Amino acid sequence: MWRGVERRFSISAPQMSVRPHIAWYLRWGMMVPFVVASIIFAWWAYDSGLEFAGFHRGQAEQELSRLHDQVAKLVAENAQLSNQVTQYERKIQIEQASNQETSDQLKNLAEENVRLQEDLVFFQNLTATRGKDGELGVHRLTLVRDKMPGEYHLRMLLVQSGQRAKTFNGSYQLVATVMQDGQNTTYVFPQDESGNAQFKLNFKYYQRIEQSIQLSPDAQLDNVQVRIFEQGTAEPKVRQDVYPS
User: Fold this and answer.
1) Closest among 142, 163, 164 to 210, alpha carbons compared
2) 3-state DSSP call for residue 147?
3) 235 inside domain
4) Residue 152 maps to a domain
5) Which stretches in the chain have pLDDT values below 50?
6) Containing structural domain, residue 222
7) Which residues share a beta bridge with 185?
């Protein structure tokens, strides 16, 4: 024990240092300027390095702003050009539709002109050869396939000869003979529940007739018989067959 006391208070005892006490806020207050100065120096060094490398922040911002303006301008021009293209496309479509309509009209007029010329020649020949008064005939009878499957278009010209012919009142039927499911079948047009419907006729000298009939797409048409009835009679006055072309 005595040795411990002696070691503690004798000349060989450990040395003790006395330091003045500084508050923490004073220590931080002295460090902050150095930290701020270090940040400013680092920022200056970074900016100087960019400028030394050829990158100028102000010029880059100006260039970026210019590019943004140019993009906006190009977008506006693109929208305007797209609008104009749409308008021109509509104009072209309208012109094409108008040209197609005009072409169809010219085609129809040409066909009508040919038909009228044929009618003129036919009637000239008809007036040159006189027949019995009231004699009824079927002329220029044709049957052609239409665009739709199973659809056929029939044309004919009914002529009543004689200078003193009376008005013909009557009707006509179309009887189609078809091959379907390996059997011959007949269809009468017009069709109704009674099966006695007829297309009406009323003319004095001639009447042009165009009539379409619709069959099953898988039916094979053999021929169509035209039956013309005078009013009040059950038996046809004229029968004539036509084959599809």
Assistant:
1) 142
2) coil
3) yes
4) yes
5) 195
6) 136-242
7) 178
Give the pLDDT of residue 154. Answer: 95
Q: Please tell me the predicted confidence (pLDDT) of residue 145.
A: 92
DSSP string, 160-186: E-STTPPPEEEEEEEEEEEEETTEEEE
The pLDDT, as a whole number, for residue 227 is: 93
Q: Which residues contact 179 (CB under 8 A, 6 or more apart)?
A: 185, 219, 220, 222
Phi, psi dihedral angles at 93 (to 5 degrees): -60, -40
In-domain check, residue 171: yes
Q: Is residue 90 part of a domain?
A: no
What's the pLDDT at 243?
94
CB 199 within 8 A of CB 190: yes
Q: Report the pLDDT value the prediction gives residue 51, as an integer from 0 to 100.
A: 62
Please state, in angstroms and rounded to a whole number, the distance separating the CA atoms of residues 213 and 225: 13
Q: What span, in angstroms and rounded, lies between the C-alpha atoms of 109 and 128?
A: 28
Number of domains present in the structure of the chain: 1
192 and 207 Cβ atoms separated by less than 8 Å:
no
Q: What is the pTM of this model?
A: 0.52
Q: Can you read off the two tokens belonging to residue 179?
A: 């091959």
